[in-house]
Amino acid sequence: MDTITHDREIVKQVICEYAQLRPSHGEIRLDTVFDEKQEHYALMQVGWDRGRRVRGNLIYIVLREGKVVIEYDGMEAGITQDLMEKGIPENRIILGFLEESNAGWAMI
C-alpha cells in the first residue's frame, strides 16, 4: 500500500472511532466528512444543547505533500497519539494550528 493510501485509511479510521463517541449532554450528532479527491477529512458536530445551536469542526486534517497536517484538533486528549499508534510516523505529522510547527512549511 502506498503512503497516501496508508495515511488516508488511518486518518479515516481514527475519525470514525471518534464519531462513535456521544456527547455527554445535548442532542448533538457527529458527522464524518471525507473528501478523498482533495484529501480533506473532518469530524463535525451538529445539533442543539440547552437551547443553543451547536455546529463546527472537532477534527480537520489535510493530507498534503506526504504529510498529515492536523489543521484543527478539538478533541480533549488530541488525536496525534492515535495517528502514531496506528502507524503514521511522528515526523510526518504537522500540527498546522501551531505556528512553530509550520516553520518552513509551504502552504498550498
TrEMBL record:
InterPro entries from the UniProt entry: XisI (IPR014968), XisI-like_sf (IPR035943)
Name the domain of life this protein comes from: Bacteria
Q: SUPFAM superfamilies, per this entry?
A: XisI-like
Q: Name one Pfam family in it.
A: XisI
Q: Any signal peptide, and if so, which residues?
A: none
- Supply the name of the protein: FdxN element excision controlling factor protein
**Source organism of this protein record:** Limnospira platensis NIES-46
